[in-house]
Amino acid sequence: MALRILVMGIGNVLWADEGFGVRCVEHLSENYKFEPHVTVLDGGTQGLYLLPFLEEADALLVFDAIDYGLAPGTLKIVENDEVPRFMGAKKMSLHQTGFQDVIATAQLMGYCPEALTLIGCQPEELDDYGGGLRDIVAAQIEPAVKIALEKLAIWGAVAEKGRGDDSMIADPSIQRSAYEKGRPDAAEACRTGDDRFFPSEV
Amino acid sequence: MATTPNGFDLDDSGRRIVVDPVTRIEGHMRCEVNVDDDGVIRNAVSTGTMWRGLEVILKGRDPRDAWAFAERVCGVCTGTHALTSVRAVEDALKIDIPDNANSIRNLMQLALHIHDHVVHFYHLHALDWVNPVNALRADPKATSELQQAVSPSHPMSSPGYFRDVQNRLKKFVESGQLGLFKNGYWDNPAYKLSAEADLMATTHYLEALDLQKEIVKIHTIFGGKNPHPNWLVGGVPCPINVHSTGAVGAINIERLNLVETIIKQTTDFCRNVYIPDVQAIGGFYKSWLYGGGISSQSVLSYGDIPEHPNDFSAGQLHLPRGAIINGNLNEVHDVDIRNPDEIQEFVDHSWYTYGEPGKGLHPWDGDTSPKFELGPNAKGTKTNIKQLDEAGKYSWIKAPRWRGHPMEVGPLARYIVGYAAGHEDIKNQVDGFLRTMDLPFDAVFSTLGRTAARALESEYQCRLMTHFMNKLITNIKNGDENTANVAKWDPSTWPKEVKGVGVTEAPRGALGHWIKIKDGRIENYQAVVPTTWNGSPRDTQGNIGAFEASLMNTPMERPEEPVEILRTLHSFDPCLACSTHVMSPDGDELSTVKVR
Is B154 found in the same domain as B258? Predict the structure, then answer.
């Protein structure tokens, strides 16, 4: 029987490069289709809401913005037991802490997928509320998806060119192009804030 | 020493303890308290340390899309923000939704509430009362007897079952994955449960995990996807197709049956596990009735779950609407969310400016112009604050007030308003609970009261779900499959300039979105979220907010281990994960704990 595979992007699209994971699954579903044993999911900012999907998967591939302390735009792939450790590398945001806990919870409950792969990208900018992906991170979407396709092929999922199932992908109004093009300018919508998170604006 | 207009004696001469969470999403929060020589909290300062600004990123966007942005703001109550947003747009454009859409929205909103309440109690809050490490010492046989005594109807109660759970827990802890339970103060005397009660509650922690993943399936069924389900201005986006073979993804009998099964399962859990657990745990903490704060004085609820579509009059709402002030439970004031004199936000102690001091603005006229400055007595630097000066500006949260009063919002507020208004279901539940606990009515004004209200509300909400499920099915059987009104979908049908307001009760309290639409685009958007009410800083008159008040006069067993602070702050269900840094008087970090 084919492995049940969950491909998931997590992160908050409202925080610039934090949206990397969600944008990757968006791109994947726009360009590739799979057999029904593969689910492509926008995991967004949610934690425990993701458990039912984990329970139904034998293998999980996650895209996320991860602060590895590397140069911005660097992709790093981590597998299996190493995954939780990296998800908590630097707790920049709730979803990272949250997802680490989701995996721990799934393990405690005995429904964690056996195979885990994390494709992480080092963000350049997180503290830009309402902002989109920086160029150097956006440029990694295609390479990240390419790596994912190779991994999926090893897991027995062959991708076919063409638009895939987007029923579990974000609403079009918040997908990357609409979101980034519709952003109000800085004069209209102030982008600065708490100096501890926006130190360049002191 | 100074007394606030809302009656709290503040004394900042004692040791200052700083609890500083770091997180994103619904808002970062930091709290500082002064404790006297006996370890009793005599001054409390709560601050939101994050610039949120949903308001500004929506400017110029299509109002029909606002919900999709709104539901990304928060990591927990995403659907509630979306619902509030579509209600605001519908109010502005005078769009009526069909009956089925009302039922389905209520079902989604109720499912979100129950999910949030269960997860909050078992997975975020229980560890403030329950010690899972102590559970390893429990006798499974005695635990089984305890279980059968507190809840005879719950089938999972054999000694073997508890032994298995205990072994599983042991393995988990021994494998070094304490993860979920790490950073606890497990030897703090503030924990009062017996080992058997600890094992019972920890076992239910696991049962609740299994249950919560069922509840969220309701969002997938009605919202098309989950997380971040889909919403629609004018109704709900899911088509119903019961009478023919139907479109893929449409609601059919099989899916409706699944929803009914999940509701039944959830109802059983609330009745046989959740409420008995709160009673059993509460029994060990009956002498710990701190944390009431302003709940005995001023509480506010906008109300929610309308019986009929498009009718938000107070008498038609299943979750009650009203305001209580000055502790007078004999008078429940109605709340007019449009009246510029009722809800106003002040910024004298917030990092914003209105150009003049002492001014309050109704959200429709809301202004979000940041002004970040520390008071003269703050310690540290702007980028590394050691200690805030609450006499100056000290929070990114504005100070909303209802007719000038700081208000507590949330499940306890809803239940106090409902009780005072003579809401029969609520009154019966509260009276029954107090009788079982052998506690007087005043006991509800406490941390425990907040926690109990959430449990009772979950059970009541299960009954409401059954009600709306029946209503939906009857309607469909009668041939009505309509789920959306798209008559005004096209912006060319809209007036040039309109404004609207949408409100809901989020799990953690009153939530409102105020919108102004001009030439088909969002001109202004203001959200006043529950955490803004509860976490508000001081106002012009010096009234302290709900979080601040709730910490006052609480004794701490060990001031360097803020178990009591966390217990009370968590009882509000602030939706943020946080790290706390406990500072010694000279500013050295003593320890760090992750707070959930």
Answer: yes
Nearest-Cα distance to chain B for A77, in Å, is 23
Which own/partner pairs from B470-473 qualify as long-range (CB within 8 Å, at least 24 positions apart)? Answer: B471/B99, B471/B103, B472/B100, B472/B103, B472/B104, B472/B107, B472/B256, B473/B256
Contact A108 B68 (CB under 8 A): no
Contact A196 B382 (CB under 8 A): yes
Residue B77: the pLDDT is: 67
Mutate to test the interface with B, among A14, A41, A93 (most CBs of B within 10 A): A14
A48/B212 Cβ within 8 A: yes
In a domain, B492, yes or no: no
Q: What is the pLDDT, as a whole number, of residue A198?
A: 38
Residues B118 and B85 in one domain: no
pTM as predicted: 0.90
- Scanning B50-158, the segments in alpha helix (DSSP H) are 54-57, 66-70, 78-93, 99-119, 140-150
State which residues of chain B have pLDDT below 50: 22-27, 576-596
CB contacts of A97 in chain B (<8 Å) are 23, 577, 594
Domain boundaries, chain A: 5-201
Within A80-194, strands assigned E span 115-121, 160-161
Binding residue ranges of A: 18, 64, 95
Q: B400 with B420, same domain? A: yes
State the total domains in chain B: 2
pLDDT for A106: 87
CATH number of the structural domain A5-201:
3.40.50.1450
Q: Check CB contact of B552 with chain A, cutoff 8 Å.
A: no
**Interface touch B68/A104, C-beta < 8 Å:** no
Answer whether residue A89 shows pLDDT above 50: no
Any idea how long chain B is?
596
Q: What chain A residue is nearest to B169 in terms of C-alpha separation?
A: A108
Q: Who among B59, B78, B226 is closest to A189 (CB)?
A: B59
Q: Give dist(CA B326, CA B578) in Å, integer.
A: 33
- Residue B440 is assigned to a structural domain of this protein: no
Handedness of CA B245, B251, B256, B258 (dihedral sign): positive
* For testing contact with chain B, the best of A195, A198, A200, A202 (most B CBs within 10 A): A195
Q: Which residues span the domain enclosing B109?
A: 96-291+446-486
Contact B213 A55 (CB under 8 A): yes
Predicted ipTM beyond 0.85: no
Distance, in Å, from the CA atom of B347 to the CA atom of B360, rounded to the nearest integer, reads: 8
| Whole-number pLDDT of residue A99 | 77
CATH number of the domain where residue B129 is located: 1.10.645.10
> Using one digit for the tens of pLDDT, what is the confidence trace for B239-276?
888 776 556 668 888 899 999 999 999 999 999 999 99
Q: Would you say B4 and B542 are in contact if contact means Cβ atoms under 8 Å apart?
A: yes
